[in-house]
Write a structure and sequence with these properties.
- The complex is a heterodimer of chains A (356) and B (69).
- Chain A has helices at residues 7-26, 37-47, 61-76, 88-105, 109-117, 121-142, 160-174, 193-210, 214-223, 228-246, 264-281, 285-293, 297-315, 333-351, and strands at residues 83-84, 151-152.
- Chain A has 356 residues and is mostly helical.
- Chain A has one domain (7-351).
- Chain A starts with 6 loop residues before the first helix and ends in a 5-residue tail after the last helix.
- The mean pLDDT of chain A is 95.
- Chain B is α+β, with helices and mostly antiparallel strands and 69 residues long.
- Chain B has one domain (2-68): TusA-like domain (Translation Initiation Factor IF3), CATH 3.30.110.
- Helix content of chain B is 36%, strand content 33%.
- Chain B has helices spanning 13-24, 37-49; strands at residues 2-5, 30-34, 53-59, 62-68.
- A four-stranded mixed sheet of chain B has the order 1-2-4-3, covered by helices on one side.
- In chain B, strand 1 (2-5), helix 1 (13-24) and strand 2 form a beta-alpha-beta unit.
- The longest helix of chain B has 13 residues, at 37-49.
- Chain B starts with a strand and ends with a strand.
- The interface between A and B is medium-sized, with 29 and 19 residues.
């Protein structure tokens, strides 16, 4: 079935993905997090002890499921293409930058939508930054920015990340003592493994078929007035909103939101960096996972950039603290400095003069 | 025929190059070469949104989209 056929099927597909997020949140994933790509990559980095923040360590089955789902459906539909060679190290840096931005905001763009649907007004501030970042990226594209061409490479190369990640996931089940697992905090909150894995696989399959991308949705709206990818995000948002209202989890406001802070300028700048870097990298964190699953070694390098970036964020104290009854939360001084540098680097990458 | 080689380029570059070609060479038949399935679909959709006809051919592991008025 061609899920990308028209707006209705795209909207419904987005709603199905929203439903997966609602189910996973209801069965144990952290509040307003449900299905956050940045958070889950960060937790996975903690699980393999690339960082040692005790509250965010869990090898999330959702990430393994998405990579596997995208890989399998791409093979079945003959869309698997093993490609590589489009500025891999620049992509690594862009992945790293996306993670710095996401962890200052406290969530990737998918979690931004999840938080918006739960009434978290800080996420709307983030949205403004996200759109501004995407707009800046579009200006760079219009000035001729390109990471260059990828080329087809040996068929097995594109399968390295999905296979290696699946191996790590199986290892985390077979020998859990090798991995770190949070006893408190977000990392300790999770849906049953089998539900998370199944949710991840379905998410990966559907997202691959409909080319879901949080950045693409807004970028296409601005650039070509095409609403296809935006329709998916709308479907996802609406079903999450209905789910939150039905479960009594909708609270409108800036304060009292789960795992969030109300430092507006940093919420804005965090997602500004994600939007800007994501446009240059050709897709949001979620889309990078799907592209990596369908054989792109370049997207796989971007993913590794996010993975390593998440570890750096915690090892260097760049990730923001969530607001609590006692503290306002927000980014540390190191986090603020790192984010400013990250945005400056993105400008250099995006607006570097081209060779004629 | 005006040819656009967008093989191996990331989104949304193939669509931007197609838009440029339609703008500057709109009277010609335009052939857009892309390597990934999602790229040809994007190019096809864009051409149709501009009131053009788009025909897709699979060439080896790649695709060509022929855009006509």
């Amino acid at each position: 079935m061609d899920l990308a056929k028209n707006k209705t099927t795209l909207l419904i597909s987005g709603a199905i993905l929203g439903l997966i997020a609602v189910i996973l949140a209801a069965t144990g994933n952290p509040g307003n997090m449900a299905f956050c790509i940045a958070c889950f990559i960060r937790d996975s980095a903690g699980a393999v002890k690339l960082h040692t923040t005790a509250t965010v360590q869990y090898f999330r089955p959702e990430i393994a499921g998405m990579l596997l789902g995208a890989f399998l459906i791409a093979v079945v539909t003959r869309e698997y293409r093993s490609t590589a060679g489009s500025s891999p190290m620049t992509r690594f840096i862009l992945g790293f930058i996306m993670m710095v931005g996401a962890l200052v905001f406290l969530g990737c763009p998918l979690r931004m939508i999840i938080r918006m649907a739960a009434g978290d007004l800080n996420a709307y501030v983030g949205l403004v930054g996200f759109v501004a970042g995407i707009g800046t990226g579009i200006v760079a594209l219009k000035r001729g920015f390109s990471l260059g061409r990828s080329h087809e490479t040996t068929a097995a190369a594109g399968a390295v990340l999905p296979v290696a990640w699946t191996f790590l996931f199986i290892l985390s089940l077979a020998v859990p003592a090798l991995f770190a697992l949070s006893e408190s905090g977000p990392g300790s909150m999770h849906a049953p493994m089998i539900l998370s894995l199944a949710g991840g696989i379905i998410f990966g399959i559907v997202a691959q078929r409909i080319r879901m991308c949080t950045i693409g949705g807004i970028r296409d709206l601005i650039l070509t007035k095409n609403t296809d990818l935006f329709a998916i995000l709308a479907g996802f948002f609406v079903i999450m909103l209905i789910g939150n209202l039905a479960l009594g989890k909708f609270t409108l406001g800036f304060s009292g939101q789960p795992i969030a802070h109300a430092q507006h300028i940093w919420n804005f700048l965090g997602l500004y960096a994600v939007g800007f870097a994501g446009v240059l990298a050709g897709g949001c964190p979620l889309r990078q996972i799907i592209l990596a699953g369908q054989g792109s070694s370049d997207a796989a390098v971007t993913f590794v950039g996010m993975f390593v970036g998440a570890a750096f964020c915690h090892n260097f104290g760049l990730a923001s603290a969530a607001a609590s009854a006692e503290a306002a939360g927000g980014p540390s001084m190191a986090g603020k400095v790192a984010l400013i540098i990250a945005i400056a680097v993105t400008f250099v990458i995006g607006f570097m003069p081209k060779k004629k | 025929m005006y040819e656009v080689d967008a093989r191996g380029l990331s989104c949304p570059e193939p669509v931007m190059m197609t838009a440029e070609a339609i703008k500057n060479h709109g009277d010609d038949t335009i052939k857009v070469l892309v390597s990934e399935p999602h790229c040809y679909k994007n190019v096809e959709k864009y051409a149709q949104s501009q009131g053009r006809k788009a025909e897709v051919h699979e060439v080896g592991s790649e695709f060509e989209v022929i855009i006509t008025k």
